[in-house]
Design brief:
Distance between the termini of chain A: 68 Å
Number of helices of chain A: 4
Structural class of chain A: mainly alpha
Strand content of chain A: under 5%
Oligomer: heterodimer
Number of helices of chain B: 6
Helix content of chain A: over 70%
Number of domains of chain A: 1
Number of strands of chain B: 0
Largest interface: A-B, 76 and 87 residues
Order of helices and strands of chain A: HHHH
């Protein structure tokens, strides 16, 4: 009889694995894609993955501090998306494309 | 299989496949829609973790505001499927995928090896937070009040900065 506890008993580790997999997917997106907007989306994916592990730790240790941290991370993520998209708009106005290649021309 | 486990596996499959779609689809609009799906999945995972208020905030802020921002910018640009969505070079591609796989293996190995010591050996009985939102609010407005106010100032600065950046004529190479 195969032991199926790992599939039926959901614990902290399961949520941490989910968080790790999402984070790694986001990191692959940041490394592999060329479109600046998709890059920003991948960063959002990574931030969400970290949020999952914060909330999981918060639940399984019975403390609320993890959720406070998630609150802050969400706000910072929204701010980061706004600034990043404004930069992408600026790049697009100049080069008619949002390839990450053009970000090296950003100096003064 | 108990309902909790079924819910977890269902949500994790949905979330991970939507996350993969964000990275793999070459049309940015589809990537944005997959990202919205991922956000909804993450919000549902928050619900299974008893963080109801955060699940609501996740839906409103991410699946609502941030995704609308992304989709609006994409519509503004009128981007078709890109000719070259992924970075060039087989060697660097393999290096990147290898480094990503190594990081993933490292994290998962660390979780497995420290699974007994992450929270001490005796896990506390699962605290049912019936008034989790109340506790969260009390903590946010007492112990973390300074951080909260600082976030307010940061959002103000970012709003002004984003408008200033996006309005600047000719971008960074303006012809004077």
């Amino acid at each position: 009889m195969l032991n199926t506890d790992i599939f039926t008993q959901i614990g902290l580790n399961h949520y941490l694995f989910l968080s790790a997999i999402l984070f790694v997917i986001g990191m692959a997106g940041v490394l592999l894609r060329r479109n600046a907007i998709v890059l920003l989306m991948s960063i959002e994916l990574m931030l969400n993955a970290v949020n999952i592990s914060f909330v999981a730790f918060s639940k399984y240790s019975g403390k609320m501090e993890g959720q406070i941290m998630v609150f802050f991370v969400m706000t910072i993520a929204a701010a980061e998306a706004a600034v990043g998209l404004a930069l992408a708009v600026t790049i697009f106005k100049r080069f008619r494309e949002v390839n990450i290649r053009f970000f090296e021309h950003l100096k003064g | 299989m108990n309902p909790e486990a079924f819910l977890f596996w269902f949500l994790s499959i949905v979330t991970v496949s939507a996350g993969l779609a964000v990275v793999l689809l070459t049309n940015p609009i589809y990537a944005a829609l997959s990202l919205a799906m991922t956000m909804v999945g993450v919000a549902a995972v928050f619900v299974t973790l008893n963080a109801y208020f955060l699940a609501g905030v996740q839906l409103i802020v991410y699946a609502g505001a941030v995704m609308v921002l992304f989709v609006m910018v994409l519509m503004l640009f009128d981007l078709k499927a890109e000719i070259q969505a992924f970075s060039r070079g087989n060697l660097s591609g393999f290096l990147k995928i290898g480094s990503v796989a190594m990081l993933g293996g490292l994290i998962i190995g660390a979780i497995v090896m420290s699974s007994n010591s992450l929270l001490g050996n005796n896990l506390p009985d699962l605290v049912v937070e019936a008034d989790g939102s109340k506790q969260l609010g009390k903590l946010l407005f007492s112990k973390y009040l300074f951080g909260f106010e600082a976030l307010g100032v940061l959002l103000m600065v970012v709003a002004v900065g984003a408008v200033a950046l996006a309005r600047s004529k000719g971008g960074t190479h303006a012809k004077h």
